[in-house]
Amino acid sequence: MNKPFSPRSRTGRRQETALSWLGHDARGAGVLATAQRHLQIQQALAALLPRGVGEVCAVIKLDNRRLELAVPGPAYAAKLRQMAPSLAQALTGRGWLLDEIAVRVQAGMPRPGSRAAHPPKLAQPLGAQALDAFDELGKAVRPGPLADAIARLLAHHGHHRS
Questions:
Q1: How far apart are CA 81 and CA 57, in angstroms?
Q2: Among residues 25, 83, 24, which one has the least CA distance to residue 54?
Q3: Residue 150, SS3?
C-alpha cells in the first residue's frame, strides 16, 4: 500500500526529503532505482572513456541489454561508436550485461569548457535624477574609496560631473 505524502510541521517532527518520499511510493521507487542505475553506469563510463569524451557523454536509457548514450556533436558520436564494442565488453566485465551501445547526437548539450549562458540582466539603468544624486553625494564625501567608487559609477554611466 502506498503511503501518502504528508508535509511535516516545523514543530520538531522529522522532515521528509524528496528521496525518502520517492522510496515510499511504488512508482517513485522505480524512478529512483532507474536514476541510481543511470548514475552508476555513468560513473563506470566516465572511468573507461577518454577524459574529453567522458565529460560530455550522458546516459539516456538502459533497457534490455541496450545502453543509449547522448553526446553534443558528431565527432563525439563517431568516437563512441568506434569504441562501442570494447566499451560494452568492459562494462560487461564490471557487471553490466550489455549487447549494444547506441549513440545519439543532442545538439543542446554543453560542450567541454563551455560556460553556462548568463541570465539576462534584471538591473534597471540609473536615470538622470539618480545620477545627479550620486554626483551630489560624490561632492559631499571626503576623498577616498567611497568617492572613487562614486566617480567610477558616474563614469560607467557616462555622467559627467557638473
A1: 12
A2: 83
A3: helix
Helices (H), 2-50: 18-24, 26-48
3-state secondary structure of 61: strand
Which tens digit of pLDDT belongs to each residue from 80-130?
A: 999 999 999 999 898 888 889 999 998 777 665 556 566 677 777 888 899
Structural domain boundaries in the chain: 19-105, 126-162
For residue 77, which of 49, 102, 60, 45 has the smallest C-alpha distance?
102
Q: Which of 64, 15, 20, 60 is nearest to 42 (CA)?
A: 60
CATH architecture of the domain 19-105 equals: 2-Layer Sandwich (3.30)
Q: Which of 101, 75, 76, 108 is nearest to 86 (CA)?
A: 101
Q: What band does 52 get if pLDDT is binned at 50, 70 and 90?
A: confident
Confirm if 155 and 162 have CB atoms less than 8 A apart.
no
